[in-house]
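User: Can you predict the 3D structure of 3-hydroxyacyl-CoA dehydrogenase family protein? Sequence below.
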Amino acid sequence: MATPLSDSSLSPLSAQSPFKTIAVVGLGTMGTGIAEVLARAGREVVGIDISEAAGARAVAALEAATERAVTRGRITEQERGDALARFRTFTDLQAAADADLVIEVVPESYEIKQQVFRELDAVVRPEAVLATGTNALSVTRLAAESARPERVLGLHFFNPAPAMKLVEVVSSVLTAPQAVAAVTDLALDLGKEPVAVGDRPGFVADGLLFGYLNQAAAMYEAKYASREDIDAAMRLGCGLPMGPLALLDLIGVDTARTVLEAMYAASHDRLHAPAPILRQLSEAGLTGRKSGRGFYSYEAPGSATVVRDALTPLDGAATVPGRTVRSVGVAGSGTMASGIAEVFAKAGYEVVLAARSEEKAQAAKARIGKSLSRSVDKGRMTAEAAAETLDRITPAGTYDAFADVDLALEAVAEDLEVKRQLFATFDKVCKPGAILATTTSSLPVVACARATSRPQDVIGMHFFNPAPAMKLVEVVRTVLTADDVHATVRELCAKVRKHPVDCGDRAGFIVNALLFPYLNNAIKMVQEHYATLDDIDAAMKLGGGYPMGPFELLDVVGLDVSLAIEKVLHREFRDPGLAPAPLLEHLVAAGCLGRKTGRGFREYAKR
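Assistant: Sure. Here are the predicted C-alpha cells for 3-hydroxyacyl-CoA dehydrogenase family protein:
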C-alpha cells in the first residue's frame, strides 16, 4: 500500500524549486504543443517518442512556431534560441530519468498508457510526478497499476495547447494533494487557467462537449438536417467558433468514438452511446481532417480546407418559384416581435405591428425607435435611414390590420392554445395566398397549421433573440407545408440578411435540441457535486470556445424557459437522459429564474 507523501519528499516541488525538467512522452500534435508551452516558459523539456520522425517533426514545429512569434514581436531572437536549446528529443524512456514531472500524451489506449507507466516506474526518481494527458480513460485505473499511485494525476491540455488557456487537473482518490497543488501552480506559471476536477470520463469540458457532439452526429445520421445546416445553426445560433460536425472532423472521429465509449461505459446514459455513424466512419478510415475525409471532404490529409463532394449543396440550385412578399404583419408586442418588425422594416418591407391593444403596439414601435437611435449613435446607420425605417412600421390594436399583408408572423407567448387561437384569427383575416408563420422555439408548427383551413400556407420561422443582431433563422416546414411557401421564406431570409437553415417539425429543431441537453448535463454535474458553477463555466469558455458558460447562459435565458424547453424535449424523445435535472426544477419552484428575478444559479444586483 502506498504511503502518504511527506513534506520532505515534496522538496523538488516547492515554490522555491518548481518543476524544472519536464518530460513529454508522445510527440504527436498535443505532445508537441505541450512541449512548446513548457520550453517557451523556461522549462527544460525532454521530448520522447518511439518515432525519430515524430521527434524531428516536433523540433521543426517548435522552430516554426517560435519563428512566427519573433516575426510578430512576441519574443526576441535570443528568447527563441533559448527555447529551442531547452528542447531535446529522444526515442527511449530512459531519457526521463532526471525529470521532475513526466506528462504522457500517447494514444488513448489503456494497454499503451499502462505500458508507459510501468516502464516509467523503473526509470524516474521516486519523487517525480507522473501525469496522464488522457481525456477519456480512468486516471484512477492508470494510477492503481503504478508503483507510486499517489504521484499520478491527470493533466489535460486542450488543442492547440499553446493557444488554449484551460488545463484540467484531475486527481484520483489515490492522488496526494501536494502533487495536485504543485501541478496546479505549474499550470498557473504557464499562463493557463487550471480547473481541479475528479476522475470521470471526459472530465468537465469533454464530458459536456462530447455528449453534444454525439447528438449532432445522430441528428445528421437521422437526415433531420444537412451537415452544413447543423454546423451553421450552432455557430450562428450559439456563437460557437465551429459547428459540431466540423469539430468532430478536427478532433478525429475515431478519437470522439473512443471518448464516448468510455463515457458510456461509466454513465450508461444513452446520450453518450456513440452514434452508429461514428463507428461507420471510423472503421472506413474516414476519421476527419487527418485522413482527408470525415463528415466533410478536405483538400488533403491534414488540411483544413473543405472541398466540394457529393453531399455539398449546389449554389444557386433551381428551386420552386416563390410568392411575392411586399408587406409583413408581425403579431406581438414583446422584445422578439419588435425585433422582427425592425428586421423587416430595415430591409425595406412595409410592416404592420399588431398587438392586443393600440397602446401595446405603440409601445412596441417606441422600443424599435430606441433601438434604431442606438444604431445611429453607434454609427451603424444614418438618422435619415432610421427615420425611414420607423416610418415603414404601422402599429395596430387589432389583427384586422393584417388583411392585406403577404406574410403574417406571430411572436406571442409560447403557449400552444394562444398560438392556435391566433392562427385561427389569421385564417379569417389574411387574404388567400398569404404565408402564415410562427416563431415558436419548442411547440409543434403543425398544430398551428391545423388551426387554419390552409395548413399548406403555414411554416415556422424561428428567429433568435435579439432578432436584429442574430443572423440565424430556423425554417421549419411541416409535412403539410407547400414547396413554394418554403422557397419564399428562404428567399425572404436572404433579403433580410439572415441565414436560413432547414429543419423538420420536431421539438427543439436544431439549436435547442442540441443546446439544452448540454445545459441539462452541466446542471447534473453541479447537482452531483462534481464541479462548481465557476469551474464549469470557465471550462466551457476556455476549453470549448463558448461565448458564455452554461450557467451564465441559463440565467440569461431564464430557468423557467429552460425548464419548459427541456420538458418538451423529454416528452418528445422519451429519453431518460433528457429528463430535466431536479436542481433546475427546484430553483424554478423557488422562483429563482435567473437574471430577471435577481437570482438563478447565481445572485445578481437588483436594478
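The first helix runs from residue 29 to 40. Residues 1-17 have pLDDT under 50 and may be disordered.
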